[in-house]
Amino acid sequence: MSQKLSQPVLRFAPSPNGRLHLGHAYSALYSWNAARQLGGIALLRIEDIDLERSKPEFVAAIFQDLHWLGFSWPEPVMLQSERMDIYADAGNHLRDQGLLYPCFCSRTELAASSEGNDPDGAPLYPGTCRHMQRGEQIERLERGDPVQFRLDVEKAMDRVGMLTFSVVGPLITDRPQIRHAWPERWGDVVLQRKGMPTGYHLSVVVDDAEQGITHVTRGRDMEAATDIHALLQMLLGLPSPIYNFHKLILNDDGKKLAKTRNSEGLADLRAKGWTPEDVRRAVGL
Prior knowledge:
Blueprint: E1 9-12, H1 22-38, E2 41-46, H2 56-68, E3 78-79, H3 84-96, E4 100-103, H4 107-113, H5 134-143, E5 148-151, H6 153-160, E6 164-167, E7 177-180, E8 190-192, H7 200-210, E9 215-219, H8 226-236, E10 242-246, H9 266-271, H10 276-283
């Protein structure tokens, strides 16, 4: 689905690996409010590339929760699980440029050899497989060793030179400011996960371009990832949207709400008698 629209286009893109909670509600409310302020529209996208954790019942629950909050969106809804061939083509384009290389390192090996962490706190990849001989690469690929493909960030930055992206805030209607990107702090990120033609970074930039997204609203915890997205947009010849980073909804101990922490879902709050107005008051929108 390609959006050929003249007005601003935003998106809310949850992953169906659990129930939506107040943090998701805030992000959705923020995105739809921003679209209204800009005179544009907000799209819903389902980011279900994690085929093991994504469940149809969670997709249905996302629709139910968002309808309950009063949202509507254009159809059809984009499902990433239906776009694997498109992501593979994007990965092949980068591979043809000599910017992707196979990595056979396990998580245990990475943790043992890493020197420092990336902005997400994960072990920084030391480049172990970057200089592997082509013959060994082919042998291990033909043998079927578990493999993921990483972006050679240093080589990619040599291609693009200085890299920037546009940010607005705190209001979505503020004048955009130019920010310099620093992809090097991420090391050689994984773009194609084991057994998959894509990972989050690759699929999100491809989909934002396909849907004509003009403004990306995301939590402050995703601000650093924009470095990688700006780099991929440049390498793939894709437009770069304007970014806006909003606050996070925290629990009582100061940590952001998350499915992995079993944060209370919107359906649970609804069962307790909460109304959409109660949700808006709770998140401050």
